[in-house]
Amino acid sequence: MKLNEIFAKDVQRPIEGVIKADDTTHLGTEVDEYVLTNEAAKGLELLLEAYTNYTNANGVWISGFFGSGKSHLLKMLAHLLGDVDGQEFPRERVSESFRSKAQGAFLPALLTKADRIPAKSLLFNIDQKATIVAKDQTDALLKVFVKVFDESRGYFGNQGHVARFERDLDNRGQYEQFKAAYTQIAGRDWAHGREEGVLEEANVAKAYAMVTGQTEGTPTNILTKYRNEYSVSIEDFAGEVKAWVEKQEEGFRLNFFVDEVGQFIGSNTHLMLNLQTIAESLNTKCQGRAWVFVTSQEDMDKVVGDRTKQQGNDFSKIQARFRTRVKLTSADVEEVIRKRLLEKNEAGESALATVYGEQHANFKTLFDFVDGAKTYRNYTDEAHFVGTYPFVSYQFPLFQAAIEGISDHNVFEGRNSSVGERSMLGVVQQVAKDVGDVEVGRLATFDHMFAGIRASLKSAAQRSIDVAERNLENPLAVRLLKVLFLVKYVEGFHATLRNLTVLVYDRFGLDLPVLSKQVREALTLLETQTYVQRNGNVYEYWVFEFSGGVPPVGFAGWLHSVSGGVGSLGS
To answer: Taking the complete model, does pTM exceed 0.85, yes or no?
Structure first.
């Protein structure tokens, strides 16, 4: 059998690698294919317990690194706990899907209880919504919240003073009349005209005068007046939310679902305080009728980092608001990948049962790392093997650690500095596609995963690999170079001959001593050609770093002489 014939679902099917808050195209699939892992289910139970039994905390902090599913969970929660603004998708369908996946006695009951709470969900990626906001502004976070809230009420979020003008008309019951009057005077909809506020001042003033009954003395520059007087404060924002919520049915809630808030905040403590104060003010004003759900790649304490005594006090306040915390781990990632992508059909299970029977006694020899390396879990039993194949279980946590190390050393480009462009699921799917035409018994090796992040890396960091692919005739050497790049910044992993042999072992039945000899020869080639350096029995991907990014005088000539002119060093 070929690998692509053993899966229960077509691995070629479209799976959105990165879940986007505002994307409704694949929403049905995202709901149906959402995997409620054991850890996520425990976190969801605690979350719903807090949400349905309000006790003075109105924040939820969801953390998890690259590809752990935090954005997917946030999106599902938004649809589970309320009607998502701008997205016509039945809340009942999400609730029913979760109820069918829930185990135990408590979670289904909590889901039913949450269903009874009427709510509106404002779901957004904060980086996307912050297009007009500079992060260095102390109220940057507040401006995004205000923008989203304005847009949810049909106001012009891109310009706060225009939204304030519309809100004031709305509060006086004159907004619809104003829009009709403007269309009559200007010959086009207000939705288009408000984008050119200054250019449309005269028409705005005429329409305003018409609906307010004013003639003489009416401001001809009404929008300019609003612009000059416009300001935002957290207290005013919370007051507006309270006023809006109180106009809804009894018990109604307005919930903000904010994706990647940790990445937006970064090391800016002012933004963290901004978030804390927003949540605190909403809590004080709305008394549990306005909640804030956020995702972050890191735990709350790691986002804040080292703290002074005062910052420590501020941190304790934000902890009090975001008391409910859900952390997704590499175990969640592996479970999601097994259930959503790698599930096998009957023929596949039968074929792999045979492979397991023949090979399981060798797993420790084939896949355990030695030489002082960090320990990663091996296949535990037949079900684990069948569920994970053609991948080996160590690959998921090791790849996550690799991504984290690469991110910490600023090797990703631009906005992808924290996560890369693809989720773990997307990377694994791409690898499964790439190896789909080989026979059962072949394995996806660790070097295959490099392709999943390649497009997101700075060109200087991967220059050695680019040059090696053009100039080296030894395919194993190129594969090893990719592996060495991935594990370069993984703390506790020792890239010895033995451990590197494990990472490139690509099929059952392969003679391990022969492969080890081939790996040694390939590593010698890479070391001779200055692609890697060796320290004792540990090999390392070689990246030169020059002060100011400029190589010293004469370096180019030396590089040409030692590398045969291929320019093989990293940067």
So the answer is: no
